[in-house]
Amino acid sequence: MTKTIVEGEVARGDRVVLRSKRVADAEADYAWRKDPELASYDASKPISTAFEDYLALYEDDLAHPTPFRRSFAVEDSEGRHIGNVMVYNIDVLKGEAEVGVTIGERLYWSRGFGTDTLKALVGYVFTETTLTRLYLKTLDWNLRAQRCFQRAGFVQYNTSRRSNGTFILMELRRSDWEVRESDDNRTRQV
Question: Which of 76, 79, 84, 132 could form a disulfide linkage to 174, CB 3.0–4.6 angstroms apart?
Answer without folding.
Answer: 132
